[in-house]
Amino acid sequence: MKRLVLLGGIFLLGRLWGWPASAIAQTWAQTYGGGRLEVAYSVRTAADGGLVVAGSTDSFGAGGTDAWVLRLDADGRVLWQKALGGDGTDVAYAVRPTPDGGFVVAGYTSSFTAGGEAGAWVFRLNAAGGLVWQKVYGPGVAYGLDRTSDGGFVVAGATTAFGAAGLDAWVLRLDAQGNVVWQRRYGGSGSDVAYSVRAVPDGGFVVAGFTTSFGAGSYDAWVLRLDAAGGVLWQRAYGGGLQDWAYAVDRTSDGGFIVAGYTESFGAGANDVWVFRLDDSGDVQWTATYGDTADDYAYAVQALPDGGFIVAGYTTSFGAVYLGDFWVLRLGPDGAIVWQKRYGGVSYDWAYAVQALPDGGFVIAGMSQSFNALNRDVWVVRTDGNGDLGGPCPLVTDTSAVLRRDTVRVTATGAGVADTGAVAVVPNTGTVDTDGAAARQCPTSPDFSIECQPTRIAVSWGRPATGLCTVRSLNGFQADVTFDCRDLPIGMVCEFIPNPVTVSVDGTGTSRMTVRIRSFVEEGSYTFRVQGTSGDLARETTLQVEVWSRHSIGPPSRRGRAPYP
Predict the structure, then answer these.
(1) How many Å apart are CA 98 and CA 102, to the nearest integer?
(2) pLDDT for 64-103, tens place per residue?
(3) Residue 115 backbone dihedrals phi, psi, to 5 degrees
(4) How large is the C-alpha radius of gyration of the chain?
(5) Scanning 171, 362, 497, 528, which has its CA 20 to 30 A from the CA of 509?
(6) Inter-residue contact 403 to 386 (CB < 8 Å)
(7) What pLDDT band is residue 12 in, cutting at 50, 70 and 90?
(8) Per-domain residue ranges for the chain?
(9) Residue range 184-207: average pLDDT?
């Protein structure tokens, strides 16, 4: 039997300032992780306004890679975090809330299958993160998940078994307990994979992924419309002469569909974000690419109440070139750009999921190495409706991608459909509490830093020491900063000119420090602090001062008797 090969760029996996427990912010950016690799593939809102995030962890759990689910409040604080898995590779790719306040999660496992073969894995958690049930179906893998109107679930992914010639798209309809209602594979002689699935009001489903069996190029985006029993209503490939992928699909307000992925066939160059809109028959209403000369990818799309769309992925054309920044585009109903922003630091920042929030903002999830020098953490970013993080935040930047329109070839495909016979296996394991650390990046309050040079000075009677102290604006700080010295030995004084120092946004200010002896000071080395204050803010730096012997340079007085100026 062939082993399942996990295809696609989505499976290329990726701390800063602390934040007070009393802070209440509706926009923020925060990492979660340990000392190894953590990544988020899915995020959804919970009934209480908080969030649930699903992905994988190498830092916690039973070993290898484990599925990782984090329950957050609206401000990003961890309510609970759970790992689930065995000694193999276990990943959560999709999560959905359930009406009872719990969650259903889909992905794949190699820990609970014969011979380490990948199996599609679905498990259900209660509101506290406890395991309600879990089942493995396979061989195969589950990438997409949605709830059905009767309280069950639909899962989409791929399988190499059950008569598949290569890799076939695979859809399983489950009841509320994870029992199989029906299961079918769809494909041709090549590789055909389903990454995303959505239930539609008539009881059927729309599925999106890619095909190498059909279409105009080596890889084409592939969309299938299924009825309630898994029968094909229509199936089409969309693309050009090169590689074109669909990773996400959602239903539009008019009953059609919006699809997002990336294309090599169209756009500005390399791979570009690709979004196209279909009517309910699969006919193209419009198609658009967004990007520049490097690689730009989309992995998530959601239709919005105003008829527009939110798209998330990552860009290497803007920001951390060749590494990637979160990239989010807010589009109008016709694909026109409303706004576009990147989020990231100096290293890898890749977004795999986006979700609109009830307050009009958005939450984006993925992974980041910009804030963990040793490895990659889950990164969750909550923005307002304009994609901003509130207050000064150096991690958010507007980008300048231009929308391009191209003519896409649409091919009616003839994928074979066959029932599959996967038998559900129930693993004997449970969830494990984890202690991943959370670190806040934005919003950051205006702040400043202090530096004095030199850091070691020498003084003696009649010979003061001087230095230059610099205050630097951080996060949009602009105000006066007043200097003073702390912990100087008795008999020694310091002064600063000018004092206070006025600092502008993103600017610096300097003051000349003079340290002198006013009365007797025992020779030796002393440590003191230079402190700058502005309102409630106080920052400091530590210096050393050497007091020279009176035999070297000093007043004509007896040792131990205080000299006078």
Answers:
(1) 5
(2) 899 999 999 988 999 999 999 999 999 999 999 999 999 9
(3) 70, 15
(4) 30
(5) 528
(6) no
(7) very low
(8) 447-547
(9) 97
- Of 152, 142, 204, 147, the C-alpha closest to 179 is 152
Q: Which of 141, 85, 145 is nearest to 112 (CA)?
A: 85
> Does the domain spanning 447-547 belong to CATH 2.60.40.2310?
yes
Q: Which residues contact 556 (CB under 8 A, 6 or more apart)?
A: none
Strand bridging mode 244-251 / 337-343: unpaired
pLDDT band at 554 (very low <50, low <70, confident <90, very high): very low
> Counting beta carbons within 10 angstroms of the beta carbon of residue 234, is it exposed (0 to 12), middle (13 to 18) or buried (19 or more)?
middle
Distance CA 294, CA 322 (A): 8
What is the tens place of the pLDDT at every residue in 386-416? 999 876 688 999 999 999 998 899 999 899 8
Do the Cβ atoms of 131 and 123 come closer than 8 Å?
yes
Residue 313, class by beta-carbon neighbours within 10 Å (0-12 exposed, 13-18 middle, 19+ buried)? buried
8 A C-beta contact, residue 364 and residue 343? yes
C-alpha to C-alpha distance for 5 and 190, rounded to whole angstroms: 13
d(CA 81, CA 253): 35
In eight-state DSSP terms, residue 489 is: P
Sheet of 349-356: strand order equals 349-356, 362-368, 377-383, 28-33, 437-442
| Nearest alpha carbon to residue 155 among 95, 237, 75 | 95
